[in-house]
Amino acid sequence: VPGGMKARLILATGENVVLDTLTLETASIWEAGATIRKNGGVLTYENARKEEVRPMEVMYNTLEVPRGGEYDLVLEDGTRVWLNADSRLKYPVVFPGSERRVMLEGEAYFEVIADPQKPFYVQVGEAKVQVLGTAFNVSAYQEDQQVEVALLRGKVGFNLPNNEYVLVPGEIATWDKGDREATLRKGNVESIIDWKTGRFNFEDMPLDRLTVKLARWYGVQFMFEDETVKEFRFSGAVTKYRTLDYVLGMIAKTTKVAFQEKDGKILVRKIE
User: Fold this and answer.
1) Number of Cβ within a 10 Å radius of residue 215
2) d(Cα 17, Cα 64) in Å, to the nearest integer?
3) 115 touches 131 (CB < 8 A)
4) Cα separation of 150 and 168, whole Å?
5) What DSSP assignment string belongs to 209-235?
6) Predicted confidence (pLDDT) per residue in 66-101, tens digit
7) How far apart are CA 14 and CA 62, in angstroms?
8) C-alpha closest to that of 139 among 168, 108, 160
């Protein structure tokens, strides 16, 4: 079955709150100068004090979304973040000082509230995305070889250990963590962020990348009978709330592969 609204909130005290098992659809928590409200699948932070917080008082929360989950978050400055499956975001409860900085592992789509006096940064390991007010997607899973930033609107800087790039709408920057090389290209940013609106949009995507995305959403594991099958490519779009059987059936109809359950995993094999 497809994933759904699932997440775990780790408070500054270390306390864990499993959001999807809260009995109340609407609930609130008081934390370090902010009120945290859960309303359906959205977590919202409201700064109760409306004042500057000294750096020594900064307290962090972490929102963890498991495999087979997704969740929306509104930070205390009004910035909205959509977290994809198997992702983790660490952020201040209330933004202090002259900047706003969050740390991401996984994939997220950001709509940042503009504040030229207080730039917004997304830290992804050694790389950093700097924005003033914009909408963009960051994919930075630890197990992936690449970090990808795709800009929908506005302007962002992609700061790397040895270089810096400035993206304009419609551009995608990719950094290879192995050879530490980066590329900047024009692309279909809308298809990259379709996951946020409930769709899988696969555009000439090799099966090894495609199955990784399916594995995170459906909580399954894939294995390939033949290494050459990983390079088979597939294009298509489907709502991600369909069952996995439906999605795999669609792929099998247009690609020379078959899927078979074996030892609790899904075997991908070539059809001659």
Assistant:
1) 19
2) 10
3) no
4) 9
5) HHHHHHHHHHT--EEESSGGGGG-EEE
6) 999 999 999 999 999 999 999 999 999 999 888 999
7) 10
8) 108
